[in-house]
Amino acid sequence: MKIVMLGAPGAGKGTQAKMIAARYEIPHISTGDIFRANIKEGTELGKKAKAFMDQGLLVPDELTLELIMDRFTKADCANGYVLDGFPRTIAQAEALTASLKAAGDALDYAIDVDVPDSAIVERMSGRRACLACGGTFHIMFNPPKVAGKCDLCGGELSIRKDDEPETVQKRLNVYHEQTQPLINYYTAAGILKSVDGTQDVNKVFDDIKDILNA
Ligand code: ADP
Ligand code: AMP
User: Fold this and answer.
1) 67 CB near ligand 2 (under 6 Å)
2) Ligand 1 neighbour 123 (Cβ under 6 A)
3) Is the CB of residue 170 less than 8 Å from the CB of residue 161?
4) Measured between alpha carbons, how far is 181 from 88 in angstroms, rounded to an integer?
5) Atom 14 of ligand 2 has which residue's CA nearest to it?
């Protein structure tokens, strides 16, 4: 099963993608997580990506595509994947469609997690992330069992630099300009499904399971 998660930054794509990955035994591939891991390790890719990410801008398509196309060659992608944060531009979506088509393949679903901008800033200000394993929590809506510690690996939780309110507003603008057009792109492809992302985390997941099990 090959799934793309769509939605504004902070809509809950990562939270749901992790639940889908665990339930359907497919890898969760987050370009944001891969960039952050590269920044942490101090790689050339990380240095290049950081400058864009800190400003709330998208990393250029060439860099992103190089990274993701390499990830698809790994053995764990044989049974599909859930993509979180990719594609984010029409050019990226077209490159993905073309590469799948060349292999006689196609995506199964693009799931849009729909959350209005008004709810996003609150979500992002409470987000706490584990840099060690990518676990994501919210101080009010999805708190870790022990404050400041990741439930999954015990790592320290931190506030993402790009979750500051000014950067969040910029990321929302970038989302509306560059990523939201993917909703029409995947509607035209006949694979778009929408879920109401303002509901409780488990209710959103129930709606997604209804789509995937249909
Ligand atoms: P994205 O991957 O779309 O940027 P995340 O999955 O990291 O978003 O979620 C953003 C923040 O909102 C996190 O702190 C997460 O715990 C919280 N969150 C995710 N889904 C919900 C939900 N349905 N209701 C309330 N908070 C949520
Ligand atoms: P995320 O963790 O998905 O919120 O992504 C964090 C940041 O990483 C984004 O604001 C972008 O700067 C960058 N990024 C992640 N995925 C992509 C992508 N597909 N294209 C361009 N930039 C990306």
Assistant:
1) no
2) yes
3) no
4) 9
5) 32
β-strands 127-130, 136-138 pairing? antiparallel
pLDDT of residue 131: 87
| Sign, Cα dihedral of 21, 204, 136, 82 | positive
Active-site positions read 13, 88, 127, 160, 171
Alpha helix stretches (DSSP H) within the chain: 13-24, 31-41, 44-54, 61-72, 90-102, 117-125, 165-174, 181-188, 201-213
Q: Is the pTM above the cut of 0.85? A: yes
- Paired with 195 in beta bridges are 113
Which value, in Å, is the radius of gyration of the alpha carbons in the chain? 16
- The rounded distance, in Å, linking the Cα atoms of 68 and 162 is 21
Ligand 1 closest atom vs CA 198: 23
Q: pLDDT tens digits, residue range 51-71?
A: 999 999 999 999 999 999 999
